[in-house]
Design goal:
Largest sheet: 4 strands, antiparallel
Mean pLDDT: 79
Strand order of the largest sheet: 3-2-5-6
CATH superfamily of one domain: Carboxypeptidase-like, regulatory domain
Shape: elongated
CATH architecture of one domain: Sandwich
Strand content: 25-35%
C-alpha cells in the first residue's frame, strides 16, 4: 500500500515536471521593433519644440514619448504599428504614416488656426459680491 501511494505521487510529479518543460520550450511571441526618430520644429520660425507628445495610434498598452529640449524624439515601435499622432498645444495635430523600417523624420508643426471665443455659462462661476 505504501508503494502504491508513492508511485502515484511520483507519477503526478513527473507529469507536472513534463508540463513545465513543455511550457518553457514554447517561445513567447515576439514582435519585431523598429526605431522611429525625428526632430520637431515650428513651421514659421524653425525653432525646436520641446515636450511635444508623440503617441503610437491604437497601441495597447499605450506607447508614447516626448521630444527633448532640442525637439528630438526616439521611439521603439512594433512593426504592427502604422501611425504616430503628434500633438502640441497651439499647433495642429500631425499624423505620421510609419514606414516598415527605421527612419528619422524632420517635422515642422503648423500653428493651429485661432479658435472662436468660447462663452462659458455663468452658472459655473458664482457671482462675486459687489463691494
Amino acid at each position: 500500500m505504501i508503494f502504491k501511494n508513492h508511485s502515484i505521487i511520483i507519477l503526478l510529479l513527473l507529469c507536472l515536471a513534463n508540463s513545465n518543460l513543455l511550457a518553457q520550450n514554447q517561445a513567447p511571441r515576439q514582435t519585431s521593433l523598429r526605431t522611429i526618430s525625428g526632430t520637431l520644429t515650428d513651421a514659421l520660425t524653425q525653432a525646436p519644440l520641446p515636450a511635444v507628445d508623440i503617441v503610437v495610434s491604437n497601441s495597447k498598452p499605450s506607447i508614447h514619448t516626448y521630444s527633448n529640449l532640442d525637439g528630438v524624439f526616439k521611439l521603439l515601435v512594433p512593426n504592427t504599428a502604422n501611425t504616430l499622432r503628434i500633438t502640441y498645444p497651439g499647433y495642429t495635430t500631425y499624423y505620421l504614416i510609419l514606414p516598415n523600417s527605421d527612419k528619422h523624420f524632420n517635422i515642422a508643426l503648423k500653428h493651429a488656426p485661432p479658435q472662436e471665443e468660447v462663452k462659458v455659462p455663468r452658472c459655473f462661476y458664482p457671482q462675486m459680491p459687489k463691494p
